[in-house]
Amino acid sequence: MSHNTFGHLFRVTTWGESHGPAIGCVIDGCPPGIEFRQEDIQDDLDRRRPGQSRFVTQRREPDQVKILSGVLPQEDGTFITTGTPISMMIENVDQRSKDYGEIAKRFRPGHADYTYDVKYGLRDYRGGGRSSARETATRVAAGALARRIVPGMKVRAALVGMGEKEIDRSNWDWDFIGNAENPFFTPDPASVAVFSDYLDGIRKNGSSVGAVIEVVAEGVPAGLGAPIYAKLDQEITANLMSINAVKGVEIGNGFEAARITGEENADEMRMGEDGKPVFLSNNAGGVLGGISTGEPIVARFAVKPTSSILTPRKSIDKDGAEVDVMTKGRHDPCVGIRAVPIAEAMVACAIADHYLRHRGQTGRI
Amino acid sequence: MSHNTFGHLFRVTTWGESHGPAIGCVIDGCPPGIEFRQEDIQDDLDRRRPGQSRFVTQRREPDQVKILSGVLPQEDGTFITTGTPISMMIENVDQRSKDYGEIAKRFRPGHADYTYDVKYGLRDYRGGGRSSARETATRVAAGALARRIVPGMKVRAALVGMGEKEIDRSNWDWDFIGNAENPFFTPDPASVAVFSDYLDGIRKNGSSVGAVIEVVAEGVPAGLGAPIYAKLDQEITANLMSINAVKGVEIGNGFEAARITGEENADEMRMGEDGKPVFLSNNAGGVLGGISTGEPIVARFAVKPTSSILTPRKSIDKDGAEVDVMTKGRHDPCVGIRAVPIAEAMVACAIADHYLRHRGQTGRI
Amino acid sequence: MSHNTFGHLFRVTTWGESHGPAIGCVIDGCPPGIEFRQEDIQDDLDRRRPGQSRFVTQRREPDQVKILSGVLPQEDGTFITTGTPISMMIENVDQRSKDYGEIAKRFRPGHADYTYDVKYGLRDYRGGGRSSARETATRVAAGALARRIVPGMKVRAALVGMGEKEIDRSNWDWDFIGNAENPFFTPDPASVAVFSDYLDGIRKNGSSVGAVIEVVAEGVPAGLGAPIYAKLDQEITANLMSINAVKGVEIGNGFEAARITGEENADEMRMGEDGKPVFLSNNAGGVLGGISTGEPIVARFAVKPTSSILTPRKSIDKDGAEVDVMTKGRHDPCVGIRAVPIAEAMVACAIADHYLRHRGQTGRI
Amino acid sequence: MSHNTFGHLFRVTTWGESHGPAIGCVIDGCPPGIEFRQEDIQDDLDRRRPGQSRFVTQRREPDQVKILSGVLPQEDGTFITTGTPISMMIENVDQRSKDYGEIAKRFRPGHADYTYDVKYGLRDYRGGGRSSARETATRVAAGALARRIVPGMKVRAALVGMGEKEIDRSNWDWDFIGNAENPFFTPDPASVAVFSDYLDGIRKNGSSVGAVIEVVAEGVPAGLGAPIYAKLDQEITANLMSINAVKGVEIGNGFEAARITGEENADEMRMGEDGKPVFLSNNAGGVLGGISTGEPIVARFAVKPTSSILTPRKSIDKDGAEVDVMTKGRHDPCVGIRAVPIAEAMVACAIADHYLRHRGQTGRI
C-alpha cells in the first residue's frame, strides 16, 4: 500500500482532513459498465454518519457525496462507470475556524498528535488530521462501488462485543442490524438493552470503551487471492488494520486456532448435493493458503476505546512541558460502533481487487 | 503487496517451491554500504532450520545460502552492499522425485490443495508448492539484512503459548531463547518441561497444535509509518499474516483493548530524565496513528495447528470422489515453533522499509 | 505507472473529464514543510490556459485551482504542506450539455474514440474523455509543487520546431519565452513572425500541424535515478509520452547519437575550477547509466498535429457504417504550443520523485 | 517501475552483474497453464549471444538458462507454468577475477562509472555492474515467456540504420533477419555488404557507432492500454528506454508527425471485407489515445555508439585527478546490433502485461 492508496487493480486513493474544505477519494481501475445509483453510495454513507443516536456524536454532517468523474449519467438518474477514475467528494460543512488554543500545542494521550509532530515536524492540529474518523466516509463510498464488482457477493458486519459485554451468538439475526431500534449494529436483539445500559454508564463517567466487530463476506467465488504475499486474508487484515483505532484482526477462528488441535481445526470436505465441494466447517474463515475456498469469509477485529475522554491524563506539550490533558466536547463513547460500515467497505474493496487480479492473471472468471 | 513481493523501498521478492532445484529471494532497494558477513544470514537461517529437536521435522536441509549479486566481497570475507539487487539462493538438496500417488489428486484438509487447484487449474503437488514452509527461509535471509538498516534496532520474538499452555510472563528472559536446552523459543525457562510433556502427547497421538508468538522491536525511532494506508502496525500485521498458518495478529494490548476503558488504555506521557518524552505504559505497542512512538513495537500472532496429521479426515479428490486423507511421514507437531525467526524477519523488513520511506519523504533521519 | 497515477514517492493521481463537473489531482508523498503560494500554481496554470492568442482555442476556462487538503494555511496567505495528500480541483465552468448528435456515434480519425469503445465497451463522448487536453491542467498544478522539492532546480521548456519550421538555436533566449509578444513559447525572437505566418496559413486551411518541444532541467544534483528499470531518463521519457499526442521522445542528442561515432559522442570530463567534476559536452543530456550527472537534463519530444481538422476524413461509426468525419468548432491548429508548460511539469515531477527515492535509499542528500 | 522490476501484472525482476556468479530474473504473475520448451527461451537467448560474428565480442558465454521454479515439468520435457514465480538463472562462466587496476578508480567517459560512484558512494568496478549488457539476457528470457501470453501475437525487430547508413525499406524481408549470412539483424539483404564495409572501417579505427532499431508487434488485439499514465505506447517506450545506451524512442511515424499536417497524419478508417474495422494507414503505430487499435504496433529507437573505444578520452578519477582513459580489450563496435532481440523481449513484456491488465479490469478478453 502506498501512503494514501490501497488496492492494486481496484485502487482507492483518499484525501482530506476533517477541518479542510472537503474530503474525498479517487477510485482507479473500476471496471466499465457497472451501474449504480447515487443512493447506493449515500445509503452506506448514512449508516456511518454521526448524529443517529445518543451513543454517537451529534455534529451535523450531511455527508452528501458528489460524483465528479468517471461515470456516464443515464436518463433515469443512474450512473454507469466508464472505466476511468471515479472522483467522489464530500464537503465539510462544519469547518468553521475556532480557537484551538492549548490543543494546538498539547499531545493528547492515545492520539497521533505526538507521532505526527515527530514525523512531519509540523501538524494540522485542527481536528484529527488524516486520522480523523471523517476520512472513513470516503472508504465507505469506495466500498459501495466495490460491492457491485463481484457478482453475488454480500458483505455484512456486526458489532459482537463492547467492553466487557458480548452478544449471544445464538440470537444472531442479520436483519436486526438495520432495525431503527438498534443503535449498535448488534445482530442480537437481546443485547441492545445490555449495551445501552453499559454505554450510558461509560458515557456519564466521561469514559469510553472498545469493541469487537465481525465481518462476513458471502458469495465470494473460490480461487481469489494468492499463496504468499497477497493472501486474500492478509489483504483483508491489512485493510481492516488501516481503520483508526483497530488493534487486532483475526480470520476464521483466529486466535482460537492456536489453542486447539489439528483434528479440531481442519475443515473436512464432502461433495454437496449440487455436485460442488462443501466444507463441513469453516474454521479457516473461507481462506486456505491465502486463496478463497468459496465458504463465507469471516474476519473479526478489535477497536480500542475512544482516546478522547473527560478524565485528565498526563502528557507533554510541543515544548516539552508536562501537562494534563482532558478532551472537552462531545465524543463517541465507543468509536467501534461506527466502524461497522467502514469494515464492510474495506473488506469489499479487498475482495473486489482480488477478483480483478484473479481475472487478470488467470482469465478463469 | 504484489503476489510475490513485499515492501516499497526495501523490496523483497521470493521464489521457489520445496521440490524444485532451489528457492531464493531478490532484495531490491537495499541501501549501499551496508556491511555484513555471510554468517549473519546463515545464523538466522540456522535458527529456523528443521532437524534441531524431536519437535521439528528431521529432514536434513543444510539451508546453505549463496549470495549471487548486489555485494562487493571484501578481503576479510565480509560483504558490502552496492545498492543493486541482492539475489540469494538456497538449493534444495533433498528434492528427489518420489511417488506422490494419491496425494497428487487428493485435497488435504487444512492445506491449500483445493484452493490452488481452483485458482490455477493445476497445481504442483510435490510438496506444498509456494505454501511450503521452506519458502520462509528466504524471508529469514532478507530479514538478516533488514535488521542492519535501522541503526540500533533489535528485533526479537518468542513463543508465548502452545495449545492450551501459556508461559509465565514474570519469568521472561530473552537470553534463554537461544539456550541449547530450549527447543521452543520460549522466554520462560519453567515452560520447557510443560511444553515438552504437552507436545510429546500431541505428537504421539499423531495430532498437532497451534501456538502464539510475540515479536518485540526495540530501538525503532519515533516517526516511522504513515497515518492511513501504510500504517507501521498495519504493514507489520500484513507481513505477519503472510506467514503460512497465521490466523490472527494483534498490536500492543490488541484484543484486550476492546475490553477496557479509555482511561485504562491511553498511555500517558512524561519527560524523561534525558529530556526526551517517555510513555508511562505501552498499551499502544509502540504505534500511535500508524506512526512509531519510540517505544518498543509489540506484535502477537496466532499460528494454527499443523494441518498434516495422522488422523484420517474426510475430503474429496480432483475428480470429486469422496475420500479419507491421512498425512503420513514426519511433520512438525507445532509449526508455530519455527515461525519465531520468520516473524522477526518479517517485522524487521517492515520497519526497514518504513525507515527508508520516512527518510525519502521527510529527510528527517 | 498505474492507470491514472504516476510517480513512486511523489505520486500524482489525476481524475476528471472535460465535460464533468471538475477535474483534479491528488499528490501523495509530498514532503512536509514545503512553502508555496496559491499563485505559484495559478501562474503555471495560466501559462497553459486556452484563450491567450489566436493560435489557441478561445474557450473561457478560468482554471481556478482550489486546494482542498494537505496544507496548513498561514496568516500571510501562503501554505505549508503537511506531508498528507494534497487534493487540488479545478471546476469546469463551461460544461453545459449540448447535442453531441453524430459525434456520439462516430469515431473521429486520430482520436481515441474507436479505441475507447473497443476497450471499455462504452465511452464518454462528451469531449475527449480522459484524453482531453483539459486533464493536463492537473499535471501543471502538480508540477508547480514538484519544482519546489529539489532545491535549486529550474525546469524550463521551449518550442523549437513547428511543422516544417525550426528555430535558429543561435538566437536562444530563455527570457523571451514569457514575453507578451510571444504566443509560441519559442526562445528565438526571430521565429515569431515565421511561426505566425506559417500557422495562420495552416489555420485558414482548417488544417493543423505538429511541433517539437525541448525541456531543460538545470540544478539537478548528480546521483538521481537508477541503473536499470527506473532510469531517470526513462522516467522522464515515460512522463512525456503520457502527454496526449506525443509520438517520440529523445534525451540529449537522442537520435543523432545513432548516427555518430563513439569519439564524437562521449562527453569528456575535467575538474572544474571549483574542484568539482565538469563535463566538456553534454551529448548525454545529463544522464549516464540512468543516473544524473549534474549537467542540465535535456529532453525533446514530438507532438503530432491536432486531429480535429475541418477537412473531412473517412471513418466508421459505432454500428460499422462508413462515414466522413469533419470536426467543426474551434480547435488549436497546433496543440504542441500548449504542451510546453505541461512538459515542464512532467519533467519536474519525474525528477522530484527520484530526488525523494534517492534520499530514501541512500540518505546521501 | 521499481528500480529492478518492470510490469504490473506480468512483473519481471532482474538481478546480477556481469562479474558475479550468475544473473537472473523472477517473473511474477505469469498466467498458469502456459506451455513452453526450454528451447523457446534458449533460442531467443542465443540470438543475443556474443561470439556470433566479427562484429560482436568473442567472449564465450554459453548463456545456458536454468529454470528454478514456477513450472511443472512434463514427461515430454516441456514445461507448464503453475502461476507461481518463475525464477531463471544464467551462470557467469567467465568471471575469473582479474586485475582491474586503474579501471577501478577511473571514470570511463560515456559509462556510468562516475554516476554510480556519486549515487552509491561505491561501485562494483568489475565490469559494468548492473549496466552490463549481460543483464539483458534475463530480459530476453522473460520476453520468451511474454510472447506466449497474447494469443497470436508476433513481435519482431530489425536494425534499420547504423551510423550514417540506412537500409532500403523497399527491400524489407523479415525472413532474411534470421539468415546465417546476416550478422546485423537487417531486413534488407542489400544492406549487409554496406554495413559490413562500414563497420569494418569503424572497428579498425578502434571506434564505434550507433544504430536505429525498429520493433513491430503484430496480432495485438485492439483495446490494450490505458488513456493516460499507462498508455501502451508509453510503457513500450519506457521499456525500450530501459535498455542500455538507448537515447530516443518514437512510435509510428514519431518525430515525422511533428513535421506534417493533420490531414496527412490522421489514419482513416473503413470497414474491412471481414466486417472488421481497418485503418487505411498506420501513422499512429498501432496506438490511439494510449490504447491499441489492432494495427501493428511500431516503435523505433536510437542506440548510442559503444562508449568503450580505443581512442583516449579525457576524464577524471575517483580522487579528482585528471586522466586519459582508453578502453582496451575487445568491444562491440556497434552495441545496437545486439539490442534487436532485447527490444523484441521488452515490447513483448509490455504488451503481455497490458493484456493481463485489460483482462483484469474489463473482462473483455
Walkthrough of the structure:
The structure is a homotetramer of 365-residue chains. The model of chain A has no long low-confidence stretch (mean pLDDT 92). Chain A is an alpha+beta fold. Chain A is built from seven helices and 19 strands. In chain A, the strands form six sheets. Chain A has a five-stranded antiparallel β-sheet, with helices on one face. In chain A, strands 10-9-11-17-12 form a five-stranded antiparallel β-sheet. Chain A has a single domain (5-362), classed as Chorismate synthase AroC (Chorismate synthase, AroC fold, 4-Layer Sandwich), CATH 3.60.150. In chain A, strand 13 (269-271) and strand 14 form a beta hairpin. The longest helix of chain A is centred in the last third of the chain and has 24 residues, at 339-362. In chain A, helix 1 (38-48) crosses helix 7 (339-362) and helix 5 (232-241) packs antiparallel against helix 7 (339-362). Chain A has helices spanning 38-48, 113-120, 136-146, 191-204, 232-241, 262-265, 339-362, and strands at 5-6, 11-15, 22-28, 35-36, 65-67, 71-73, 79-81, 86-91, 154-162, 165-166, 211-218, 246-251, 269-271, 277-279, 287-288, 291-292, 297-303, 313-316, 322-325. Chains in contact: A-B, A-C, A-D, B-C, B-D, C-D.
The secondary-structure element order of chain A is EEEEHEEEEHHEEHEHEHEEEEEEEH
User: What is the assigned CATH homologous superfamily of chain A?
Assistant: Chorismate synthase AroC
Task: Estimate the helix proportion of chain A, in percent.
Answer: 10-25%
| Fraction in beta strands of chain A | 15-25%
Oligomer: homotetramer
Task: Tell me the number of structural domains of chain A.
Answer: 1
The name of the CATH topology of chain A is: Chorismate synthase, AroC fold
Given helix and strand content, the structural type of chain A is: alpha+beta
Compute the separation of the termini of chain A in Å: 25 Å
Q: What is the mean pLDDT of chain A?
A: 92
The most extensive interface, with participating residues per chain, is: A-B, 111 and 111 residues
Give a short account of the largest sheet of chain A. 5 strands, antiparallel
What are the low-pLDDT stretches of chain A, counting only 5+ consecutive residues below 50? none
> How many β-strands of chain A, per DSSP?
19
Q: Looking across the biggest beta sheet of chain A, what order are the strands in?
A: 1-2-3-8-5
CATH architectural grouping of chain A = 4-Layer Sandwich
Rg of chain A (CA only): 21 Å
Question: Tell me, what is the CATH class of chain A?
Answer: Alpha Beta
Tell the overall outline of chain A: globular
